[in-house]
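In response to the reviewer comment on reproducibility (Comment 2.3), we provide here a single inverse folding case reported in full, input and output, so that an independent group could reproduce the run without further information from us. The C-alpha cells appear first.
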C-alpha cells in the first residue's frame, strides 16, 4: 500500500542553493527554507523551523540559477526521510521535502516574473 505524504512550504531561503551532479550525471539542488510560526495570543510567541528542500533535473537547474538567499518561495513536494550512520556509528535521520514544484514569490529576480512558477 502506498501512503500519502504531501508538503507545502511558504518561506524564505536561508542561504543560496547548492547544485551538484550525481555519479549518474543527474542534477540535484538543495536549499533550506525558514518557516516562521506564531502561536497563542501573546506577542513574541514565535519560532522558526528550517526545512531542507531537494529538487532534481531541470527544476534543480532553474532553482540554482534564479534563487538566492532571502528569496520567498512556495514549495510543493513529498516528505522523505534520510537515514545514515555518522562517523561514530550512531544512527541519524532527517526529514526533507523532495519538491516537484517551486514557485518564486516576491520581487523580480534576473528577468523572472513575480510569482513565476518553476515547475
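Designed residues, in position order:
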Amino acid at each position: 500500500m502506498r501512503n500519502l505524504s504531501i508538503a507545502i512550504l511558504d518561506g524564505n531561503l536561508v542561504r543560496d542553493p547548492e547544485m551538484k551532479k550525481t555519479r549518474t550525471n543527474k542534477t540535484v539542488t538543495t536549499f533550506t527554507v525558514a518557516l516562521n510560526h506564531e502561536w497563542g495570543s501573546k506577542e513574541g510567541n514565535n519560532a522558526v523551523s528550517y526545512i531542507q528542500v531537494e529538487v532534481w533535473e531541470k527544476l534543480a537547474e532553474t532553482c540554482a540559477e534564479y534563487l538566492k538567499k532571502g528569496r520567498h518561495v512556495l514549495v510543493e513536494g513529498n516528505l522523505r526521510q534520510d537515514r545514515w550512520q555518522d562517523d561514530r556509528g550512531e544512527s541519524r535521520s532527517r526529514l526533507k521535502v523532495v519538491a516537484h514544484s517551486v514557485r518564486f514569490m516576491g520581487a523580480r529576480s534576473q528577468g523572472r516574473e513575480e510569482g513565476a512558477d518553476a515547475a
